[in-house]
Amino acid sequence: MPAHGNAATPDPYRVLGVARDASPAQIRAAYRALLLALHPDTRAEPADPARLAQVVAAHAQLRDAGRTATGVSIPVRVRAPRHERRDIRVGPVRRS
Fold first, then answer.
1. pLDDT tens-digit profile of 18-27?
2. Cα Rg, the chain, nearest whole Å
3. In the prediction, which pLDDT does 34 show?
4. So what's the pLDDT on residue 17?
């Protein structure tokens, strides 16, 4: 039975087969190559779903770490609630 917790989490760099100083492009290339090799739609023999899940989880972990480390601020526009916005009212058209 597999152990749970951080101690049992495999090293994402080792799972993807890249060095710790790998660039985001190298991580992405390794992920895509492993995904192509392990995906059940691209294989004749049965795939290992546990290995595929490890690869996907490792890539998600490294991708999220890279996104939070960039420090890029994304502008967010907050709209007023619907009841506070003024509706455009159109009255009847009168022709004289």
1. 999 888 899 9
2. 25
3. 92
4. 93
Find out whether 42 and 36 touch, Cβ atoms under 8 Å: yes
The Cβ of residue 43 has, within 10 Å, a number of other Cβ atoms equal to 12
CA 71 from centre of chain = 17
Q: Exposed, middle or buried by CB within 10 Å (0-12, 13-18, 19+), for 29? A: middle
SS (H, E, C) the chain: CCCCCHHHCCCHHHHHCCCCCCCHHHHHHHHHHHHHHHCHHHCCCCCCHHHHHHHHHHHHHHHHHHHHHCCCCCCCCCCCCHHHCCCCCCCCCCCC
Q: How far apart are CA 18 and CA 10, in angstroms?
A: 13
